[in-house]
Each structure stands twice: as structure tokens, then as C-alpha cells.
């Protein structure tokens, strides 16, 4: 092993390509969806349990903070969906080159941003 090799462990100084950012965001959105699913399933169970439960969930969902959390979960879902479609397209053999990967990442970020803004307009 060469002990003279440069070692850079400061993550703030490493310049990652756009494909790395889309991949990392895809993983983060998956974790957010996994954790948020429990909360949403609880709310669904409570709302379907009785008429009073439905009214409680409806009143809870009217809060601006809850709307923000729901928008965050919906944003994670939309990003994860678009990035997942990109992976499926790449599995078919399209966009596997370096330039194709960069273009695909840019498209994922642009389409996700538009969908997330539209979801915010829909929720608010």
C-alpha cells in the first residue's frame, strides 16, 4: 500500500457530479417514504375507524404544519417516482453513457421540481 497517496476525507470539499446528487436524493426520499408511511397508515386507519376519527384526522390535516409535512412526504414520493422511472429507463439501455446519465439527472431534477411545486399548489 502506498502511504504517500493523497487522502481527502473532508466531504465539504469533494465536488460530486450531478448523478451522485440524484442518487443520494433518491435514497433519502426512500427513507423518508418508509418512515412517513407509518404515520400515513395510522391516519388512514383512524379516519376509516369511525366518523369521529375521520373528523379528527380532517381537523388535524387543516394545520399548516401538518400540510407542510404532508407536502414533504408527497415531495419525497414524487422525486422517488421520477428517479425510479429514470432507473427503469436506464435498465432498458437508454442513457447509460456519461452524458446520458448527466442529462437524465438534470431531467429528473427539473421534472421533480415542477411536480413538487404543483403538489404544493394543490395542498395549499
TrEMBL record:
Name of this chain's protein: Succinate dehydrogenase cytochrome b556 subunit
Binding-site positions, heme: 80
Organism: Pseudomonas mangiferae
Segments passing through the bilayer: 24-44, 65-83, 103-123
Pfam families: Sdh_cyt
Quaternary state and interactors: Part of an enzyme complex containing four subunits: a flavoprotein, an iron-sulfur protein, plus two membrane-anchoring proteins, SdhC and SdhD. The complex can form homotrimers.
Domain of life: Bacteria
Source organism phylogeny: Bacteria, Pseudomonadati, Pseudomonadota, Gammaproteobacteria, Pseudomonadales
General function of this protein: Membrane-anchoring subunit of succinate dehydrogenase (SDH).
Annotated metabolic or biological route of this protein: Carbohydrate metabolism; tricarboxylic acid cycle
A single cellular component GO annotation: plasma membrane
Recorded GO MF terms: electron transfer activity; metal ion binding
Keywords assigned by UniProt, alphabetized: Cell inner membrane, Cell membrane, Electron transport, Heme, Iron, Membrane, Metal-binding, Transmembrane, Transmembrane helix, Transport, Tricarboxylic acid cycle
Amino acid at each position: 500500500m502506498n502511504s504517500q497517496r493523497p487522502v481527502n476525507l473532508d466531504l465539504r470539499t469533494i465536488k460530486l457530479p450531478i448523478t451522485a446528487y440524484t442518487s443520494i436524493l433518491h435514497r433519502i426520499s426512500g427513507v423518508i417514504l418508509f418512515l412517513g408511511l407509518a404515520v400515513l397508515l395510522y391516519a388512514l386507519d383512524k379516519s376509516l375507524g369511525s366518523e369521529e376519527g375521520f373528523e379528527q384526522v380532517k381537523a388535524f390535516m387543516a394545520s399548516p404544519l401538518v400540510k407542510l409535512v404532508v407536502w414533504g412526504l408527497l415531495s419525497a414520493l414524487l422525486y422517488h417516482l421520477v428517479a425510479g422511472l429514470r432507473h427503469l429507463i436506464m435498465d432498458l439501455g437508454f442513457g447509460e453513457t456519461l452524458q446520458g446519465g448527466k442529462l437524465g439527472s438534470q431531467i429528473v431534477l427539473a421534472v421533480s421540481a415542477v411536480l413538487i411545486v404543483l403538489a404544493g399548489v394543490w395542498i395549499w
